[in-house]
Amino acid sequence: MSEPSAPILYLPHGGGPLPLLGDPGHQALQDFLESIPARLGQPEAIVVISAHWEADTVTVTTGAQPELIYDYYGFPEESYRIAYPAPGHPALAADILQCLADAGIPARGDDQRGFDHGLFVPLKMMYPQAKIPCVQVSLVHDLDAQTHLAIGAALAPLRKRNLLVVGSGLSFHNMKLLMGGDNSHDREIDSFHDWLRASLCDPTIVRDTQALRLTHWGQAPGARLCHPREEHLLPLHVCWGMAADSSQAEVVFDGPVMGRRAMGLLW
Q: How is the beta sheet containing 134-140 ordered, strand by strand?
């Protein structure tokens, strides 16, 4: 029998703290996130690649008890009192840094950086007890697709552990359309999500072709409408790289978030 592989989940984390404030536009997402433990169990640790952290090189939280970063603005006062006191995991962080070094990818640790809302918002719904140690991994600020595929590939050995890996982003992240009521682009939004589903879930599409599609994702129908800036998509690239031989993903969420289509994928 083959060794079990840690689940890798690319998920939408919603709009700032709104999923934790009872916003009706996030009800479907809340229901999905709350169902995760029954499906995936209790990991020993969680590694989160967040769309809300960019650095000059890959950076990893190494602190034992990171604080929260309320990296959103203009929300109710209670949004800045949200608590999620999950511990860090310095030993796991060191192993992540070693994996990156072994692959020749520049990386560094940061023992002062806290957990941003790309981590604590979804995890508070998934594992509200905040007992599972967490490590957060940054994007690289050049936002190059191949760079992030390579980061994921370097971290693939971590799948041998009892971990949950979360790519925390949003498959549709056009803030102008998210904040407005213009529905004239729904066909383009659907086209991009249909492309994403076909690219990553169709068993006839081999891994090399998947890599090409993800590298040139901007050529997909509706791509730049859905992602004028790609930081909310690139956690998916890291997830795909980590998935290694698990080529085909499973769509585990395909529903509305703030009135727009969003997708969650599981390897």
A: 107-110, 58-61, 134-140, 45-55, 163-169, 8-12, 260-266, 250-257
